[in-house]
Task: inverse folding
């Protein structure tokens, strides 16, 4: 499995994207503020020179206005950069006194303070300040307008300088943060690498819990792995146990076959040889049966709960009736009276082949162990929520203290002349578990024999 992505790269990516977005917004704001600041500063100078001009406006003897432009006032404007300065002075509406006649005049002014606006003059962006005053002769006052304008090169340069400085500061911050993230991710991931190394160095069959100290965020993962290893260990033990038992169970019939083959090879008569061949054949049948049961068990183990839940609804009565009928000849040979009780469909959710196998094992046990002349009944009992499959016999039964033990794999009763490997009841129980059903083993009616019941939930 290849890594889906790198934590380090992902963190860095999001850090850079978010700081870039925030940085852009901050720079836009800085730009706005820088323009405002430089305007405030330069506007003050612009208003100052308009005021200086206004102070030089006087009323001549003939009643017209005269102005003696104080060039120093304009000089202080141009000193900043290569900016060019323009001015005009106008008398009462309609009378132009001096300066650049094409220069725009601001219409809106408030009281005697200057008004400012951005405009264009001779194809260049300018800042205009207009000041309205009046000159007094003592008898009457004559209104006039002073307009001063300046190209905006110096202002733009100032704003740009502010912007570049902030951008540089921001770039340094982003770079610094990226380096910090890079280093801290490396440091933070170190325990994980150590953990990986510790697991990597283990023997394949070393399943003891991981004791490495890890960050608290990683502890749940370690706990999960640990509990998984515990389960794995017990599954492994069970498997070892199972294969040990299984090979032991198979070795017995194989030894018998071998012995019988040797016997028949040395047989003095045809009769003796036939006898040995018959015994060998029985041992083969036994081995076959064990193998079939082992395979069935493996199949049940492999079946997942999900598959079992997806099982379709089946009629247990019909299946039980069919399997019982199939067992009648065997029961007859063993001198057993096999009967069936149950009517009407009883639906459960299960896999029909496995249910057949389950019943074959239960009926097979009753036929094998109940003894000649016994009665065996296969029964379907229904109530509101459950459907119960019962196999009851009136044979010797199982002593109460052994009822638990016979459910275990490979455990058999001591009498058992019957062929088997002690896997029948465990198979029944595992099939039952697979379909959410429960196996109970109780003495039969009147305390005689055995009643094995499997209780299913009724399918809705
Ligand atoms: N109906 C029964 N009556 C008496 N004993 C039984 C009955 N069913 C099972 N047993 C006992 O339980 C043991 C385990 O049964 P099972 O798991 O089917 O394995 P196997 O039949 O291969 O021995 C049997 O060996 C037998 O001693
Ligand atoms: Mg059996």
Result:
């Amino acid at each position: 499995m290849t890594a889906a992505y790198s934590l380090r790269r992902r963190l860095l990516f999001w850090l850079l994207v978010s700081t870039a977005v925030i940085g852009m917004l901050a720079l836009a704001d800085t730009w706005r503020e820088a323009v405002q600041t430089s305007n405030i500063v330069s506007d003050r100078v612009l208003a100052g020179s308009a005021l200086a001009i206004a102070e030089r406006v006087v009323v001549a003897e003939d009643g017209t206005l005269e102005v003696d432009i104080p060039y120093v006032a304009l000089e202080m404007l141009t000193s900043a950069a290569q900016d060019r300065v323009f001015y005009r002075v106008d008398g009462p509406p309609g009378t132009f006194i001096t300066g650049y006649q094409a220069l725009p005049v601001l219409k809106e002014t408030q009281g005697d303070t200057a008004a400012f606006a951005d405009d264009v003059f001779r194809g260049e962006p300018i800042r205009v300040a207009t000041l309205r005053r009046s000159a007094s002769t003592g008898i009457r006052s004559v209104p006039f307008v002073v307009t001063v304008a300046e190209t905006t090169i110096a202002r733009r340069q100032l704003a740009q300088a502010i912007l570049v400085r902030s951008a540089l500061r921001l770039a340094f911050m982003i770079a610094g943060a990226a380096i910090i993230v890079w280093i801290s991710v490396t440091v933070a991931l170190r325990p994980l690498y150590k953990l990986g190394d510790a697991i990597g160095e283990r023997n394949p069959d070393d399943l003891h819990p991981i004791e490495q100290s890890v960050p608290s965020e990683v502890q749940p993962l370690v706990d999960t792995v640990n509990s998984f290893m515990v389960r794995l260990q017990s599954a492994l033990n069970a498997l070892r146990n199972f294969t040990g038992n299984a090979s032991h169970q198979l070795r017995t019939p194989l030894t018998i076959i071998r012995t019988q083959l040797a016997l028949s090879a040395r047989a003095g008569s045809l009769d003796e040889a036939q006898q040995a061949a018959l015994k060998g054949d029985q041992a083969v049948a036994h081995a076959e049966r064990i193998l079939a049961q082992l395979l069935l068990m493996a199949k049940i183990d492999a079946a997942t709960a999900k598959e079992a839940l997806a099982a379709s609804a089946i009629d247990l009565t019909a299946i039980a009736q069919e399997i019982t009928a199939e067992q009648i000849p065997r029961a007859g040979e063993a001198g057993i009276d096999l009967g069936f009780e149950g009517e009407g469909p009883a639906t459960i959710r299960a896999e029909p082949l496995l249910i057949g196998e389950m019943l074959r094992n239960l009926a097979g046990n009753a036929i094998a162990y109940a003894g000649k002349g016994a009665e065996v009944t296969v029964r379907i009992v229904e109530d509101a929520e459950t459907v119960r499959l019962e196999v009851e016999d009136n044979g010797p039964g199982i002593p109460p203290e052994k009822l638990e033990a016979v459910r275990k794999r490979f455990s058999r009763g001591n009498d058992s002349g019957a062929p088997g490997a002690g896997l029948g009841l465990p198979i029944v129980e595992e099939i039952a578990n697979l379909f959410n059903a429960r196996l109970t083993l109780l003495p039969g009616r009147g305390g005689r024999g055995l009643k094995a019941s499997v209780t299913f939930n009724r399918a809705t």
Observations:
- The radius of gyration is 52 Å.
- The longest strand covers residues 124-136.
